[in-house]
Amino acid sequence: MGATKKAKVMFTCEHEIKEKLTERAKLQNRTVSNLVETLVIDALTSQQEQEYSSTEKNSKGVA
């Protein structure tokens, strides 16, 4: 495997969370790092969509 040009991010979590991430990554035949990146992208996309939806409602005068 070659060196990556992606930024490195590290976080701490409970052992149980790491075990669940490892299991899920194995089921999807991917690394834990790749799984976590995908989960973060999904969360950020969802948050951005919610913020956009909220902004659209506010600009139309809907509370």
Secondary-structure element order, N to C? HH
Largest sheet: none
Globally, the shape reads elongated
Q: Which stretches of 5+ consecutive residues score pLDDT under 50?
A: none
Classification by helices and strands: mainly alpha
Query: What is the average per-residue confidence, as pLDDT, rounded to a whole number?
Result: 91
N/C terminus separation:
51 Å
What is the overall number of helices?
Answer: 2
Indicate the proportion of strand residues.
Answer: under 5%
Task: Tell how many strands the DSSP assignment holds.
Answer: 0
Query: What would you report as the Rg, rounded to the nearest angstrom?
Result: 17 Å
Give the helix proportion (percent range): 55-70%
Walkthrough of the structure:
The chain is mainly alpha-helical. It is 65% helix and 0% strand. It has two helices and no strands. It has helices spanning 15-27, 32-59. It starts with 14 loop residues before the first helix and ends with a helix. The mean pLDDT is 91. One of its GO terms (biological process) is regulation of DNA-templated transcription. This is CopG-like ribbon-helix-helix domain-containing protein.
